[in-house]
Amino acid sequence: MLEALKTLSDFFVENSLRTRRNLRGDIEHRSLAINEEFVYIFKQVKEELENISEDVQLMSNCCQDMTNHLKATKEQTQDLIVKTTKLQAESQRLELKAQIADAFIAEFQLSPEEMNVLRCTRDGTVTENFFKVLRRIKQIHNDVKILLRTSQQRSGLEIMEQMALLQETSYEQLYRWAQGECRALTQETCDVSPVLAQAMEALQDRPVLYKYTLDEFGTARRSTVVRGFIDALTRGGPGGTPRPIEMHSHDPLRYVGDMLAWLHQATASEKEHLEALLKHITTEGVEENMQEIVGHITEGVCRPLKVRIEQVIIAEPGAVLLYKISNLLKFYHHTISNIIGNSAAMLLTTIEEMHLLSKKIFFNSLSLHASKLLDKVELPPADLGPSHTLNQTLALLREVLSSHDSCVIPLDTRQTDFGQVLSCVLDPLLQMCTMSASNLGSADMATFMVNSLHMMKTMLALFEFTDKRLEMLQYQIEAHLDTLINEQASYILTRVGLSYIYNMVQQHKTEQGPLANVPSMDSMSLKAAMVQFDRYLSAPDGLLMPQINFLLSTAVKQQIIKQSTELICRAYTELYAAVMNPDNAYKDPETILYRSPHQVQSLLS
């Protein structure tokens, strides 16, 4: 309603009687005008639609024509499409086959660049790329075995044969190159190139070629070592430093030591060269191969070394030098064996032979010296001290043991050698001392033997491995000390007049009657003896055998005095007991022996 009124207000602008009367007509006229306008507009739309319809009809006709044309064209090109499709499928199959063929060739054939590397190697140059190609050939040879389990057995066999031929050719080229490189290693300072070490790693797959190459290396280095050893003997080092070893031939120990030291250094150097050459080897037995080759390298110096050491040993420079040379040879045998192992290397055999020879001549020298000791036995000196021959022999033994004590050979070997040396020298020495003292009195003989044994013991105490010998010497010293103790006690008892009395006390038996009735055992005789015994008690050191003063050891001298004094006290105790015994019929025994045994012991202690 509001919309109608609003629309009416647009053209009903004047509210008058006339306008109200004509309102209906105006509305109808306006409605007619609107309808006419609507009809006019729709007429235009109709015309446009008719035009569009005509255009659509034309387009439909055109499309129909095109469809018919395409249908006709399709019918005409159907054969061409089929042929094209077949050709595309065939092209794809051929492309796939080409890819497979390329992959097969890349997997089982060498590239032109790799073949070129093998051809360049024939000119005598081996590079890192050669080993890459060799590993590639080996890989192809292993991978081609897969084809043998498929329908491509023929191709697999052909490729395997081809790779095997390339492998053998490559290994032959590599062997000849490595052989030439090894022959060129004749300088004293041998630098093994990394490429040569790689060549040895590759050749380990061909044991025969590997062995031949190692032999070539050993032969080249052997001549170098021999030449270097001769130069060291005769020419010395560069510029004369160090001096030639032959210049020290007047000093046997240094001469032999310098030769062995040079060989030890050379052996260690050759071992290092071999380790550099075989550092990439992974097969078992490489250590044995190294020991064998080092033994072969050092074999050339064995003859000149043996001749020179034999000359030194046969010249007999003296027992001490022979023993030092023997220990030196033993030390270097042990040291070099740590480098080249305990295999039957000629160098170790030569050193061991020289060691045994020097040891044999050393013991022959000691045996000769010992036999001379017994051939002409020297009489003991007037002071009953060690004889000149004993001192000389002990000085020789001390020097031998000192050199042995300072050597660095294994402990068990040193202990065995010690026992042999001591047996070879000490036993004849003890026999000589016994023969020398055989015509002496018991006290003189015991004194001489104690002094001689004391000298031996004092000298042996300075060295190890002598415990058994020291114990044996101590037993002998104690045996002779017992003699001296008894002699000293008898000497005192005789000097104080108690020797006869003590003997009678020991020999008396109860059934023989009272001891006082025995001749020279009466109270007066006992009192006279006690007077002299009192003098002894006042100055006990005044009654010493002359032989006691000849003893070299103060401790031994004091031991003899002490133990002989104990024997005196024991004898006095027995005498005191006999005198105080009423059965022996002594009157007033306290006036005869007025000192008790305890008092006598206190005075003598």
Structure description:
This protein has 605 residues and is mainly α. The chain folds into 5 domains: 45-102; 113-177; 186-363; 377-468; 484-604, Monooxygenase (Up-down Bundle). The protein has 23 helices and no strands. It has helices at residues 2-11, 17-21, 23-108, 112-121, 128-143, 153-183, 194-203, 207-234, 252-277, 286-298, 302-314, 319-340, 346-375, 388-405, 411-436, 442-460, 467-495, 499-507, 523-538, 546-549, 554-580, 589-592, 597-604. Helix 21 packs antiparallel against helix 23. The chain is elongated. The termini are far apart. The model has no long low-confidence stretch (mean pLDDT 82). It is found in: Golgi apparatus membrane. Residues 8-119 form the Conserved oligomeric complex COG6 N-terminal domain. It is a peripheral membrane protein. This is Conserved oligomeric Golgi complex subunit 6. Component of the conserved oligomeric Golgi complex which is composed of eight different subunits and is required for normal Golgi morphology and localization.
